[in-house]
Amino acid sequence: MNGVRAIFFDAGNTLIRMDYPVIVAELARLGCAVTLADFERAEWRARVRLDASFTPGASTEHPDTGERYLRLILDELGVRDATIYTALAAWRRGYNAPMGFWTAMEPEADLALKLARERGLRTAVISNSNGTVADILTHLGLAGELEFIIDSSKVGVEKPDPRIFHLALERAGLKPAEAVYVGDLYSIDVVGARAAGMRAILMDPGACWGSRDCPLARTALDAVKHVLGR
Q1: N or C end of the chain: smaller count of CB under 10 Å?
Q2: What are the residues facing 123 on neighbouring strands?
Q3: Closest C-alpha to 182, from 155, 163, 153, 159
């Protein structure tokens, strides 16, 4: 991509992911045996359905969003027992607060940031979060590869509002055409970045999004390679 000087990343499902093993273990404790591979594929499909469920102005950080996301993942697994959903939802609300189970690194995330910086691209995060994303990225050793981290709860505006992207551009001293955004939700990340005048890449690890009017990337590393023209 010509003229690009920076890549701004989403955090969830882009650089970090849910701790799949701990969720699968809890499902097993509830009497529902699923494999890690099945859970991963179910989550990939569920995020597409979650994206389609958003209404204009809806917050991705509202508790209802997390509950809907969980229900969609279980539905994709074929788990539709209300008792299991209720028990898992209650467990989720109390697990490892305030970070919850968004504490694992996405595959190749560290390699993506290193490659971008080695090739002279500036890197940062713009995330809808509850105030914990910087701590999570630090814990995973990714924060050191980022110039800055913008957390929606800290700045008072959420994606897809273009103002949060403008905050990042202003902080970096860049024009919209000089930065690309990488995220996992079309209506939040791609639409929001474009509203701010930026180009965007959509994460699609399981080839679940179908045909979209933007580049798709399996991993954050693939997204960086796309920007670099490799």
Answers
A1: C
A2: 7
A3: 159
**Which two tokens mark 172?**
């970096």
- Percentage of residues in the chain having pLDDT higher than 90: 90
Distance between CA 47 and CA 202 in Å, rounded? 12
3-state DSSP assignment of residue 157: coil
Q: Which H or E element spans position 125?
A: strand 122-127
**Strand pairing partners for 15?**
none
**Before 160, cis peptide (omega within 30)?**
yes
pTM passes above 0.85: yes
Within 10 A of 93 (CB to CB), how many other CB atoms are there? 12
Report which secondary-structure segment, H or E, holds 16.
Answer: strand 16-17
Using an 8 Å Cβ cutoff, are 6 and 122 in contact?
A: yes
Report pLDDT digits (tens) over 136-146: 999 999 999 99
Name the pLDDT band for 110 (thresholds 50, 70, 90): very high
Say how many C-beta atoms besides its own lie within 10 A of residue 62's C-beta.
11
Tell me the C-alpha distance between 77 and 17, whole Å: 18
